[in-house]
Structure formats: structure tokens, C-alpha cells
Design a protein that fits this description.
The complex is a heterodimer of chains A (about 475) and B (about 600). With about 475 residues, chain A is of the alpha/beta class. Chain A has helices at about 140-145, 165-175, 200-215, 240-250, 265-275, 290-300, 330-335, 345-350, 365-370, 380-405, 410-425, 435-450, 460-465; strands at about 10-15, 15-20, 20-25, 35-40, 45-55, 60-65, 75-80, 85, 95-100, 115, 130, 135, 150, 155-160, 175, 190-200, 220-225, 255-260, 305, 310-320, 340, 360-365. In chain A, the strands form five sheets. In chain A, strands 9-17-16-18-20-14-21-22 form an eight-stranded mixed beta sheet, sandwiched between helices. Chain A has a seven-stranded antiparallel beta sheet with strand order 1-7-4-5-6-3-2, with no helix packed on it. Chain A has a three-stranded antiparallel beta sheet with strand order 13-12-15, with no helix packed on it. In chain A, α6 packs across α7, α10 packs across α11 and α10 (about 380-405) packs across α12. Chain A is elongated. The N and C termini of chain A lie far apart (about 65 Å). With about 600 residues, chain B is of the alpha+beta class. Chain B contains 16 helices and 26 strands. In chain B, strands 8, 18, 19, 20, 21, 22, 23, 24, 25 and 26 form a ten-stranded mixed beta sheet that branches. In chain B, strands 1-2-5-4-3-6 form a six-stranded antiparallel β-barrel. Classes of the chains: A alpha/beta (about 475), B alpha+beta (about 600). Bound molecules: adenosine-5'-triphosphate and magnesium ion (MG). Adenosine-5'-triphosphate sits at the interface of chains B and A.
């Protein structure tokens, strides 16, 4: 990775045009595409920006802090000659930074001469290690049916007012390297945590800070905060700054890093705003056509590489506008990430925590981290069976709402019973409950035992013989 | 060899404008900036050229030079392609890793095909032979079992004035000399071919041999022919990639070209780590030994993503020209279309639907047209089959890429979100999917299995569409309102859905079903239906059928009976006879 020390560069006085956060600077020569600039207003205050487009004798610059207070004549632009770099160091754990990586906790600048380009570089697919080690989160809807692996990117799709922050905090607090079911818990390997907030309220950031403090994790956390009242354009950099530190921790220092990004929907809005100001042709809902590639340039900074023992696991949080999963932000995120955990309002109203809507949730890497020698042999089929049964429950509920519960067949009534128990006993658990994988499997089998054996076609007959505990006598 | 042809005047993402259009041609490969990044001329106007750059342009300056090469964007073709993994413009990723580490930095330049490696060449022509373009000059063994046929460049012809004797040669060394009039040309084992130009052949043939994939819902229900084109659209997480991986593993093609086009890094790594350990059931060799991978993941430069599709299809055509059956997977063509859109947007072209350029349909047509079953220039027969994944925004098939794709493919495998969330995999909706190859491949099935596959397949489809209709009624009034004969249909379609259509790609036995196993399963289920129907017609209550132990046996047969244990199906048939026979006897009279 390139390392540079930022030095002075050419300076231009006055700008040609200002439109929203975008400045058109005339007169620079041979400006570099994507280089960082320092923008000085007439009172000598400095803010930073980035070159979005260069032409002969002009450059289009995006000011991270917006253009408030900038004037046509009184603004000086200094081109710094390279893309935005941030310092990276182990001692950044335990510290708090603004959205561009400057300390805001009153402490000193990190002492290091290692600077990294916030844009990162694509991992060569030949250099990756395919993720296989599961992370035990202690949450049944994750460990049991949507297992998270080290090196996976698994977002939380949520809605305004749903407890995604609690769930993320619980995951962070409880996450340990998974063990084979029944194996004694070994000392947990601790994760370093990189937390990036984009456009969320101060109480959200505060909530996480408190939660990290209570669990004693604070010294392992680096926080990058761009809050709701911070400049929106800065949000474009915040997750990238966070991931740049994460890559250093994971691939240089060989740590296991958990990255929490919240709220990516606010990030998307900032991107849309800049795109609209520039008059770019929009694709869907005003978002730019390159939204997919832009998001991928961050989400793909997850994984493991062969030259390091470390890993980066990403948990981006997105609130879906109007709970609409087809909105471009969740939609394109889902197309890039390796599954999604979806929170549902119905379950939330029913008092279920965490209100994980199991059916639309998915972990694509699950299949590679569970089963024999990883969790337990029956785990994959057990999971598929729970899904199939719960999906059937939905059909039965629909039918019951038309013809009435009493009119349902005996088997269908059992599905109703299964569905209720599944939500109350499997999905529902307390904020502090940390279930082992064997406990999760056990609850699942208990629930499957509500159904007649004949319905359980996803698990093997041997597994039924071993784990089924129902009173169904039929074959 | 390359000289400066222009000076950069404007940069926006992957698109660069430069002054100096006089010395370059449209679609010429150029080197951009001091780092000499790879680019392609995509527009010429007045004194200006527009270039799309295949590498990250961050840090590039106006005033920097552009160098011409005089060549169009091309791929290198020759022995050594198989088992390679390239980026979208055919840079070998393993060499890049070796040279610059785990992260791809720009400006890294490597030969696509190893220049040092020696191949044992055996000539197939002799001095004096008249040869035309595409003629096989000799062969080398590219793997232990794969014969790579060294062909004369399609544009050349003449008489052989010298041919190398059997021996070890690098791809750069001359292996033949061809005289055309006064001119003499030297041929090596290495060829270049411009990626945007389809390789020529003599003629197309009808596509009437199915590409057998071992996937029951594909082969039995919606087959694609060798040389055909199929589209597999679906929302995120519905199974496009798993299905394409399954086809890449099990399809009865001799060469697989897999293009990861704007998708995940981990998915390419999975193929890279898994394929060398999986054995091709037909040759006994590792699957990697028939596979070429193109990986231009979502975070790699977007213009190279656009090129990756062409790089892949050109390699596929090259093996077709040797007389092989090639299957090409592109995951996902939507990301490729988005790359077109992004470049077009930067050029401020007039957008058509949803920001896509008006030429989207034309480009899709050109791509799918390169599929085909052909008579090659050297008199052999070969095919390229294309399976393109489509990722419609919000899973809505009415969007432009899905709609235009539908015009150019004949086989449509529609993935369905609700099936996927119920973990019914492959989540291919049997009512929304279609294949226009059904009639064409019927004869092949008859010959191969001696059975009337098409009639059975159509019967099963008829039952499935009955089921859809009956389910509507059940939703309103419950199943009890249906007569037993209709409930019998529902019993059978459950067997079709769970016992045949559902297929678990991660389970060893189930992952691949031989043609024999597929048709036997279908036959058994239909047999179950006929016998059951006869019994309920005589008044037997449906639950007696539902509770027969053989129901469970049939559902589990897909994973309990291996491809080698076909006799076990006879046992299952006996069980049907026995258990149904009993009921039959009870309700006779
Ligand atoms: N045939 C199958 N057998 C078992 N599991 C399957 C099968 N098909 C799909 N799946 C499951 O569905 C998940 C999603 O499939 P896949 O990754 O192929 O989706 P996709 O359509 O390619 O999504 P995206 O557009 O986001 O890439 C897989 O991780 C796997 O768990
Ligand atoms: Mg996919």
C-alpha cells in the first residue's frame, strides 16, 4: 500500500463557481484526479475537499464540510498532490475520531508515520482465504440459521425505531470464535472493533460508547463519528477511513476486526446529493448509476488474506426507507454482501427481541462454517428444516385467517403451534442471553418435535431417531 | 513500439478525454498516463479522443501522455489458458499477486500466457499441405487428458512450407511457416484475437443436444441445448451464483469459462479453492483442469468489467473452434450492463431506459449471438453455450436488462424470492420459467434413455399447473373442500417439488443427478400418481395415500440413492406396488 507524507502543493486563489458542496476551481494546472485539497475561506479557516473531475484549467472539487461561508474571491485552494490518506496505528483503538479521521476525544494525533489511502485497493481474489470459521454470537437466529463467519459481510436491514443498535451491540459484546457443539468454551479470542457512524444522532453514538464501556471493550474500539449535525459530504469518507484502519489492524497487525457501519442509508443519501448537484444521470430513485460499484468498494474490503492471520468481518446497518427492502440501498447492499439479517416490525410489535424476520434473512457463507467438525453434523439440515417449517407456518396462518383455526387440519394446527413457539422460544431471547450453539440446536429440535415426524423431510431418518422428542408415534 | 498520440485534457472516473485523435483508431488499445494504464479508445470527435481506462485513475493528471499501440483490445490465445484466472482484460491474477502482494495495484503488466513454458508439440500437417484459416497445424496436451489443437489464425491461409517436428516449444517459437503467394508467414502456438470481434466459423447447426447439467429442474424441466443461451434472473440471494457454480461443476462440457463479472471476491476464491479438489465425473480429472476463470470483482475497475464478458467469450470461441463443447457462465450480466451505463453516463450520452444507454439491447444481442453450435473452419463441430445471470433491481423482471435479455435467449430460469426464503432450492419458479429447446432435445432423450421424456415432463408440468390452480382454492376454503382426486394431485406435486425439483447443491449425493436417475425419479413419481389416482377414484380417503411409508422413501430417494445405484429405484417401485396394491385390494368391489 502506498504511504505518503502530505506536503504542500500548488495553490489557486478564487473559485469559478460554487453549487452546494461542489466548487469549480479554475486555473490549476495538471491537477490530479481524486487528489485532496485544502480549502481556506476568507477568514483563514481550513476545510478539506477532494477532486471529482479534472479538465484543462479547471477542477471540480467536493468540499467535505460543505461550502457554507465560502466566497468566490476569498477562497484559496491548495492541491495536496495525492488521494486522501489517514494515519493508522494500533493506538487508535480506544480513541474517537471525526468522520475524516481527526481525533475529537481531546487526545493527541496518533503517533505514527504510516499513512494509508482511504480508498484502499481491491484484494486479489487469488490472495483471499475463503472464510470457514464461525463466530458464535450467542443469538439463535444468527448462530443457528444465519451463521456469521469470520471474514463475512453481513448487514442488518432494519427500519426506523427497530432495535438494530441493541442487536449490533449484543453481537459485538458476545462475539467469540465458534466451537464445535459441546466443546468446552475456550478463552475467547477478542475482536478489535472499528465503529463508524454516518449521520446518526448523538444518542446512537452514545449508546454504543456506553455499551462498549460496560462490556469493557472500549479499549479495543476505534470510533469514527460523523453525526447527524456533521457535514453530510464527510460521510462519503467516514466508512472508508474506518475500513482503512481495519485493514491495517487485520492485515498488518493480524487482528480479528469487527467493523460496524451505521447507518449506510445516510451514506447513500450523501452520495445521491452530490450526484444530483453535479447533474449526473440518475438510475433508480435519484441514486447515481455507480451506487453498486461505490458500495462494493467498501463492502468488499472484508475477508481474509493468505499473508495474515487476521480478518475483517463487516456488519453494516441500514434502515430501509419505509421498510422497503427493494429500495436501492438495501437492494444493492444485498446484492453485494454475503446475506442479510432482516428485522421485522410485526415481531417487534409482538414483543419479540431480537425481532429477526427469519424468512428473508440469509447467511450465504453459513454452509461453509457449520456441520460436522464445525458445529454439529445435523446443523445444515436442521436449519433447512426449521426454515421450511416456518415458511409453511406462514401459509397456514394465511389459511387460518380465512377459514378459522378450528377448521385447519390436525397437521396444520401443529404448524401453527410450531410457529408460535418458534417465535417465542427460538427467535426471542433476552438482550443479555448468550446461547451456546448446542443450546440453540436443542431448542430447534424441541420445536421440530411439535410436528409429526413425517413432515420432517429435510433431516435424515437417523437424525430424527437421535434428536426428535415428540410424541408422534406414526412411523 | 508505442508512441505518444495524445495529451489528457479531462478525467472523470474511468473515462478520460485527450487531444490528438489523428493517430489512433476507434477501439484501439492505448496506454494512458505516465503509468501507462491500459485503456481503449471509445470515441473520436474532431481533435478529441475518449478513452475508457481499465485501471484505477486516481492520481492521474491532465497534461499526461497517451500512447498508441496500433492494436485493438485483444486476448492471447494458446496452450496454458486452462486453469488460469485472469482479470477482465486477461491479466493473470496469480502473477500480479506474486509481484505486488495481496492487493491489486495498477500498472502491473504481465503476459497472459506463459512464455517460458515448453509444450510438447505434435504436428498434424506436412510440408506442401494447403491449409485454410482455422486448420489444425498440430496438437499439444494442455493437461494430462486435454488435447489443445493449435490452429492457423482464421485470417490466414496458404501452403505449409515448414512444419516443426515433434518437440518441446514455447508459445513464442515458430511451429510452422505458411506461404501465401510470395509472402511467407510464421505461425506460433500463440494467437491474438480482438475481443469485440466474433471468431468466424463455417455455419451454424441446429441446437438439439441438451447441455446436461445434472440439475433436475434444468435438465428434466427446462433444458438448454448445447450452443444455446439461457438467462437466470433473480433477486439477491435467490441462487444465481450457486446454480452457475453447479453448472460449471457438473455440465457435460469439455471446457468451462466462468466469468465473475462485478460480483464477490469470495465467490471466485471459492471456485479457485474448490475446483482443484472436485473430480470431473466424466474424465476423472480435477474440475479445474477444464476451467478458465475471469474474475473482475465488483471492486475492481468498472471498465475492465465491461471488457470481461468479451474476454471470456473470445476464449470460449477459441476452444469451440478446436471442436469442443464449451459452456460459459457470466455472473452477472447486469453488472456488465451497469458498467456500460456508468461509462455512458460519464460521456453524458443521452440515456434511454433507467439511465442505460440506447445501445444496451444491441450489446446484449451481440453477446448472446456468440453462442452457437457450429461447423468450425477445420471441419469439426463445437459449441458455445451461454448461461447469463441477471440481477434485476428489487427483483423486478420488468427492468431493461431482464427484458432485453429475454429477447436473445431461448431458455429462462426465473428465480423466485419466496421459494428461496422457504429454502426451496434451486429457487427456480417452474411456472415462470420456460425452455424453447424442449422439442429440439426430445429425440436425444429418447435415444439416450429409451423413454418418452417429453411426454413425462409435460405430464408433470400439467400436474404442477393444476396444483397452482388448486392452491388458489385451498387458500380460500381449505384443502378439505377439494375432492380426493384433486387432493391426489396435491400429494403428487408435493413429491415432484420435494423429491425432484428441490436439489441441494451442497450435499454430495444430491448435487449431481445423472440423466438416468432424473428420468427414473420422474417415472416413479408419475407411476405413484397413476396408481394413487386409481385408488382414490374408487373412494379411498386421501389420507391413506398420504400416510403410505413409500411417500417418504420417494422424497428421500434423491439423496439416498446414488447415481450408481439405479437398481434401488426398482425396489422403490416394488414398495409402491406393494403398498398401493394393498389399498387397491381393499377398495376394489
Ligand atoms: N441449489 C441450492 N442448494 C442449496 N442451497 C442453495 C442452492 N441455491 C441457493 N442456495 C442458497 O442460497 C444462497 C444464495 O444463493 P446465491 O449466492 O447463488 O444467490 P444469488 O442469486 O447469486 O445472489 P446475488 O445476486 O446477491 O449474488 C446460497 O448461499 C445458498 O445458501
Ligand atoms: Mg450471486
Amino acid at each position: 500500500m502506498s504511504e505518503v507524507t502530505v506536503q504542500g502543493g500548488q495553490e489557486v486563489v478564487g473559485v469559478g463557481r460554487i453549487e452546494g458542496p461542489i466548487l469549480v476551481v479554475e486555473g490549476g494546472t495538471n491537477v490530479r484526479y481524486d487528489e485532496v485539497v485544502e480549502i481556506q475561506d476568507s477568514r483563514g479557516q481550513i476545510r478539506r475537499g477532494r477532486v471529482l473531475e479534472v479538465g484543462e484549467g479547471f477542477a471540480v472539487v467536493q468540499a467535505f464540510a460543505g461550502s457554507t461561508g465560502l466566497s468566490i474571491d476569498g477562497t484559496r485552494i491548495r492541491f495536496l498532490g495525492s488521494a486522501l490518506h489517514i494515519p493508522v496505528a494500533e493506538e487508535m483503538l480506544g480513541r474517537i475520531f471525526d468522520g475524516l479521521g481527526t481525533p475529537i476525544d481531546g487526545g493527541p494525533e496518533p503517533l505514527t508515520d504510516t499513512y494509508r489511502d482511504v480508498n484502499g485497493q481491491p484484494i486479489n481474489p487469488t490472495a483471499r482465504i475463503y472464510p470457514r470459521d464461525y463466530i458464535q454470537t450467542g443469538i439463535s437466529t444468527i448462530d443457528g440459521v444465519n451463521t456469521l463467519l469470520r471474514g463475512q459481510k453481513l448487514p442488518l436491514f432494519s427500519g426506523a425505531g427497530l432495535p438494530h443498535d441493541q442487536l449490533a451491540a449484543q453481537i459485538v459484546r458476545q462475539a467469540t470464535l465458534g466451537k464445535v457443539a459441546g466443546a468446552p468454551p475456550s478463552e475467547s479470542e477478542e475482536f478489535a472493533i472499528v465503529f463508524a457512524a454516518m449521520g446518526v444522532k448523538n444518542d446512537v453514538a452514545d449508546y454504543f460508547r456506553r455499551s462498549f464501556t460496560e462490556s469493557g471493550a472500549l479499549t479495543r474500539v476505534a470510533m469514527f463519528l460523523n453525526l447527524a449535525d456533521d457535514p453530510p459530504v464527510e460521510r462519503i469518507v467516514t466508512p472508508r477511513a474506518a475500513l482503512t484502519l481495519a485493514e491495517y489492524l487485520a492485515y498488518d497487525l493480524e487482528k480479528h476486526v469487527l467493523v460496524v457501519l451505521t447507518d449506510m442509508t445516510n451514506y447513500g443519501e450523501a452520495l445521491r446529493q452530490i450526484s444530483n448537484v453535479r447533474g449526473e444521470v440518475p438510475s433508480r430513485k435519484g441514486y447515481p448509476g455507480y451506487l453498486y460499484s461505490d458500495l462494493a468498494s467498501m463492502y468488499e474490503r472484508t475477508g481474509r488474506i493468505r499473508t495474515s492471520k487476521g480478518s475483517i468481518t463487516q456488519i453494516p446497518i441500514l434502515t430501509m426507507p419505509n421498510d422497503d427492502i427493494t429500495h436501492p440501498m438495501p437492494d444493492l447492499t444485498g446484492y453485494i454482501t454475503e446475506g442479510q439479517i432482516v428485522l421485522g416490525r410485526e415481531l417487534y410489535f409482538a414483543g419479540v427481541y431480537p425481532p429477526v424476520a427469519v424468512l428473508p434473512s440469509l447467511s450465504r457463507l453459513m454452509k461453509d462454517g457449520i456441520g460436522k467438525n464445525r458445529t454439529r453434523d445435523d446443523h445444515p439440515r436442521w436449519g433447512a428444516q426449521l426454515y421450511a417449517a416456518y415458511a409453511r407456518t406462514q401459509d397456514v396462518r394465511a389459511l387460518a385467517s380465512v377459514i378459522g383455526e378450528e377448521e385447519l387440519s390436525e397437521v396444520d394446527q401443529k404448524y401453527l403451534k410450531f410457529g408460535r413457539a418458534f417465535e417465542r422460544e427460538f427467535v426471542n431471547q433476552s438482550f443479555t442471553e448468550n446461547r451456546t450453539i448446542e443450546r440453540t440446536l436443542e431448542i430447534g429440535w424441541k420445536l421440530l418435535s411439535i410436528l409429526p415426524k413425517k413432515e420432517l423431510t429435510r433431516v435424515t431418518l437417523d437424525e430424527i431417531a437421535q434428536y426428535y422428542r415428540g410424541d408422534d408415534a406414526a412411523n | 513500439m508505442s508512441e505518444q498520440v495524445g495529451t489528457i485534457t479531462w478525467i472523470s472516473g474511468p473515462v478520460v478525454r485527450a487531444r490528438g485523435s489523428r493517430h489512433v483508431g476507434m477501439l484501439e488499445l492505448v496506454e494512458v498516463g505516465d503509468e501507462r494504464l491500459v485503456g481503449e479508445v471509445i470515441g473520436l470527435k474532431g481533435d478529441q479522443m475518449t478513452v475508457q481506462v481499465y485501471e484505477e485513475t486516481s492520481g492521474m493528471q491532465t497534461g499526461a501522455p497517451i500512447y498508441g499501440t496500433g492494436l485493438p483490445l485483444s486476448v492471447e490465445l494458446g496452450p496454458g489458458l486452462i486453469q488460469s484466472i485472469y482479470d477482465g482484460v486477461q491479466r493473470p491474477l496469480p502473477l500480479i499477486e506474486e509481484a505486488v502482494g495481496s492487493f491489486i495495484t495498477r500498472g502491473a503488466r504481465f503476459d497472459s500466457i506463459n512464455r517460458e513454458k515448453k509444450w510438447k508439440f505434435t504436428p498434424k500437417v506436412k510440408v506442401g499441405d494447403e491449409v485454410k484459416g482455422g486448420a489444425v497445424l498440430g496438437v499439444v496436451m494442455e493437461t494430462d487428458t486435454f488435447e489443445h489443437r493449435i490452429m492457423l489464425n482464421p485470417d490466414d491461409s496458404g501452403s505449409i512450407s515448414w512444419i516443426a517436428p515433434v518437440g518441446e516449444y514455447t508459445v513464442d517459437e515458430p511451429i510452422a511457416k505458411i506461404k501465401t503467394g510470395k509472402e511467407e508467414k510464421t505461425a506460433t502456438m500463440l494467437q491474438r484475437w480482438p475481443v469485440r470481434r466474433a471468431r468466424p466459423f463455417v455455419s451454424r447447426r441446429g441446437a438439439n443436444i441438451p447441455l446436461i447439467t445434472g440439475q433436475r429442474i434444468l435438465d428434466t424441466f427446462f433444458p438448454v441445448a448445447k450452443g444455446g443461451a439461457a438467462g437466470i434472473p433473480g433477486p439477491f440471494g435467490s441462487g444465481k451464483t450457486v446454480t452457475q457454480h453447479s453448472i460449471a461443476k457438473w455440465a457435460d462440457a469439455e471446457v468451462i469459462v466462468y466469468i465473475g463479472c462485478g460480483e464477490r471476491g469470495n465467490e471466485m476464491t471459492e471456485v479457485l479453492q474448490e475446483f482443484p479438489h472436485l473430480i470431473d465425473p466424466r474424465t476423472g480429472n480435477p474440475l479445474m483442469e477444464r476451467t478458465v476463470l475471469i474474475a473482475n470483482t465488483s471492486n475492481m475497475p468498472v471498465a475492465a468489467r465491461e471488457a470481461s464478458i468479451y474476454t471470456g467469450i473470445t476464449i470460449a470461441e477459441y476452444y469451440r473452434d478446436m471442436g469442443y463443447h464449451v459452456a460459459l457462465m457470466a455472473d452477472s450480466t447486469s453488472r456488465w450492463a451497469e458498467a456500460l451505463r456508468e461509462v455512458s453516463g460519464r460521456l453524458e450520452e443521452m440515456p434511454a431506459e433507467e439511465g442505460y444507454p440506447a445501445y444496451l439491447a444491441g450489446r446484449l444481442a451481440e453477446f448472446y449471438e456468440r453462442a452457437g453450435y457450429v461447423d468450425t473452419l477445420n471441419g469439426a463441430q463445437g459449441s458455445v453455450s451461454i448461461v447469463g445471470a441477471v440481477s434485476p433491481p428489487g427483483g423486478d423482471f420488468s427492468e431493461p436488462v431482464t427484458q432485453h435479455t429475454k429477447r436473445f435467449i431461448r431458455c429462462f430460469w426465473a428465480l423466485d424470492k419466496s421459494l428461496a426464503s422457504a429454502r426451496h432450492f434451486p429457487a427456480i419458479n417452474w411456472l415462470d420459467s420456460y425452455s424453447e429447446y424442449l422439442e429440439d432435445v426430445g429425440a436425444w432423450w429418447r435415444e439416450k434413455t429409451g423413454k418418452d421424456w417429453l411426454a413425462m415432463r409435460n405430464r408433470a408440468m400439467e400436474l404442477l399447473s393444476d396444483e397452482a390452480r388448486l392452491s388458489q382454492i385451498v387458500k380460500l376454503v381449505g384443502p378439505d373442500a377439494l375432492p380426493y382426486t384433486e387432493r391426489m394431485v396435491l400429494e403428487t406435486t408435493r413429491l415432484i417439488r420435494e423429491g425432484i425439483l428441490q436439489q441441494n447443491a451442497t450435499e454430495a449425493v444430491d448435487a449431481y443427478s445423472s440423466v438416468e436417475k432424473q428420468i427414473r425419479l420422474l417415472e416413479l413419481v408419475l407411476y405413484f400418481h397413476e396408481r394413487g389416482m386409481a385408488i382414490v377414484k374408487r373412494g379411498a380417503p386421501i389420507n391413506l395415500i398420504h400416510d403410505l411409508p413409500v411417500v417418504d422413501t420417494i422424497i428421500r430417494a434423491k439423496s439416498s440413492v446414488t447415481n450408481e445405484e439405479m437398481h434401488k429405484f426398482d425396489d422403490i417401485q416394488k414398495q409402491i406396488d406393494q403398498q398401493m396394491g394393498q389399498l387397491d385390494a381393499e377398495y376394489r368391489s
